Amino acid sequence: MSSLLGQLPSxxxxxxxxxxxxxxxxxxxxxxxxxxxxxxxxYISSKFFDLASRCLSSDFTFIIEQRWQALNNETxxxxxxxxxxxxxxxxxxxxxxxxxxxxxxxxxxKSIPVxxxxxDEFHGMRLEWxxxxxxxxxxxxxxxxxxxxxxKKGDRDRVMQSYFPHIAKTAQSILNKRETLNIYTxxxxxxxxxxxxxxxxxxxxxxxxxxKLKQFIMEDLDSFVARKDxxxxxxxxxxxxxxxxxxxxxxxxxxxxxxxxxLRYNIYDLQVQSARSDADLRHILTSTTNRSIxxxxxxxxxxxxxxxxxxxxxxxxxxxxxxxxxISPNDPGVTFSGLLNFLDGLWSSCGDERIxxxxxxxxxxxxxxxxxxxxxxxxxxxxxxxxAGFRKLAATYLGIKDHSSFVTIENLLESTTVTPAxxxxxxxxxxxxxxxxxxxxxFLRRKRNEETREAGAPPIQKQDGKES
Length: 468
Known about the structure:
Low-confidence stretches: 316-330, 460-468
Helix content: 40-55%
Shape: elongated
Largest sheet: 7 strands, mixed
CATH superfamily of the largest domain: P-loop containing nucleotide triphosphate hydrolases
CATH topology of the largest domain: Rossmann fold
Radius of gyration: 33 Å
CATH class of the largest domain: Alpha Beta
C-alpha cells in the first residue's frame, strides 16, 4: 500500500498540471474569440448541444403549427378540437369560460391555455401535448400558435400511422356535433380573424319564405355537402356560391343565419374594403377554415371592384364618389381580377366544403362577370312578403295558423309591397292575436294608399265612402 501511495503524483505536481491546462484553455478561448465571430460561436455551440441532446434523449417531438403552406393547418384544427376531451388529473392548468350571459349557472366550458401540458394514453403509448405561442412579424404581425407532441422515438411511426388518424376521426365527430357556432370578423390592425359566439335563432322552420324556394335551398345545400367525390371527379373546387338580392328588410341576413344553423358552419363576415391589396385579400381568405361560410354583405356598396366595369368607366363621378372607400391613399386596394381569382381562379382551390354568400340590394350594379356560375352559382331573390310568408310569421309570432282576418290580409298583401321585417314588427306589438291582426290590416291599408298616391292614382274607397 505504501509503495502504491508513493507512486501517486504530489499535490504540487497536480496543481502545476491544472495551472497548465487552465492556461491552455484560456489561450484557446482567447484565440477563438478573436478568430471566430460571436454569432458563429453561438451557432456552433447550439448545434453541439442539439446533437448531444438528440444522442442522449429517447424522446421525439412533433410540431403542429397553426398555418401550413399559406393555409390554416387542418391538423392543428383537429388537435384543438380533440385535446379538451383528454383533460384529466395530470393537466396542470385550464382555460375556462362561459358564453351564456342569460344563464350564469351553466358550468363553464374547458379549453387549452398556452403552456398547458396534457398527457394522453393511446395503445400503450404515453403522449405529452403542449400548446405554445410566439409573436410572429415576418409577413403580418400576429400571434403564432403551435402544438408540441412528445413521444418515445420508437413510437414515432405508430403515432403517424394510427394516433393522428384517431385524432382526426374523433375531432370530425366533435365538429359535426358542435353546440355553438362562431362568427368571425377581420381585425385589420392585428391581421387576424376575431370571433364571437353566433346564436342567431333563425332556422328554415322560422324564416318567412315561399315553401318551394325554401325546399330548393335546403336540398341544394344538402346535395353540396354530400357530393365531395363528384366535385373531385369533375375537377372543380368543393365550394358553392350564393347571391341573395332584393330590397332591404326582406330577410337576407336571416337566411344566412338559417343556412349556418342548418349546416352547423361557422361564419366569416368579410368587408372587402378592409383588404389593402390583392395579396392581403388572399391572406384574409386563406385564413378561413374548411366547412365554413364566407359572407360578403352589400357587395355593391363596399368596393368598386364589384361594379359593372363599363358603367364605372362611363361614369367618372361615381368613380370619384367611391374613392373614399379606399383605406388610405397608400393602399392600392383590391382589384377586380384579384377578387375573381379567389372566387374561381387558382386560389379558389385553397380549401374545401365552403359556402360563399354575397348579398346586395341592387343586383343590377354588379359586374356581369361576378354573376356567372362558378362564382355565384345560385341567385335567390328575396322579395316582399307573400301570403305564405305572412302565415309563417303569424304562426311564429302569434302562435296561430288560421284566423278569419287572414283572407283580408292576404288580399291586401297581393297589392301592397311590405317586407317581412315590417310584418314582423307589426306582429310584435301585442300578445293578443285579434288586436294585432286588426292593427296590421289598418297598417296595410295605409301603406297601400300611400303607394297609390305616389303612383298618381286616387285612393281606394270603401263602400261607406271612407278611404280603404
